[in-house]
Amino acid sequence: MDITGIAKIATEMADFGTKQTVGIAVLKKTIEINAAGALALIEAIPDITQLAQNLPAHLGRNINTTA
Q: Does residue 26 lie in a domain region?
């Protein structure tokens, strides 16, 4: 193997390492964005105690067991 072949392999290995680092950074950012979106959805869920206070008193006392 000549010197240019070794240099070419070294350059390709460095490029691969850089691409892998960039890919990991993009993946981490995507995970952060998804986590922020999930948190926003969870926070948008209304409080069940407030919903229950707005319902008539007779609702939720009986369970219909026939289908």
A: yes
Domain-located, residue 4: no
CA 22 to chain CA mean position, Å: 18
pLDDT tens-digit series, residues 21-38:
999 999 999 999 999 999
Compute the distance between CA of residue 33 and CA of residue 21 in angstroms, rounded to an integer.
19
* Residue 9 Cα distances to 4, 20, 23, 36, angstroms: 9, 16, 21, 41
Domain enclosing residue 23, as ranges = 18-52
The answer to whether residue 33 sits within a structural domain is: yes
Full-model pTM: 0.55
Cα radius of gyration (the chain): 29
Of 29 and 18, the structure prediction assigns the larger pLDDT to: 29
